[in-house]
Amino acid sequence: MRRVLCTLDVMSGVRILMVTHDDQEAELIEVALAQAARPWQLARCTDSRALLPGLLSRHTLPPHLVLLEQNMPFLDGYDVLGQLRAQSALVDLPVVLLSNSSHESDLARAFSLGADEYLVKEQSFPALMGQLTACLLRWEARLGDSERGAGSVA
């Protein structure tokens, strides 16, 4: 997998930005995308501190969806989510928070900060693959509906 810092330059398909420092998790997500055989374009941000400047840059295409790991060094997913929602240009960007925690307080915190979806990661590879694929298919449908004017992304 090509390591990138928040660069999306592909015009076709749903552009997905994965924010994770975990190479194994990134590979799992990449495999899920490949197995789904959909026109999804994936970029990766490995440093949560670089996410906001990268998204606000006029030199890259914005993603349609952000997959944001909750457990990140420097800035965790909650901090990043708060920063994203504080920017008027990014307030409507769909964000799926990926976490190992199923505690109610973590879910409540994620949604209070503006997460569009909270995904508790499965521990087995097949279950995680199915979970990620289902999540991405849901968002592909929502994004397609909003582009056709049939509804809202959020």
UniProtKB/TrEMBL annotation:
Q: Which Pfam families match?
A: Response_reg
Query: Which residues belong to any copy of the Response regulatory domain?
Result: 15-136
Output the superkingdom of the source species.
Answer: Bacteria
InterPro entries xref list: CheY-like_superfamily (IPR011006), Sig_transdc_resp-reg_receiver (IPR001789), TCS_response_regulator (IPR052893)
- List the protein's name: Response regulatory domain-containing protein
Biological source species: Deinococcus sedimenti
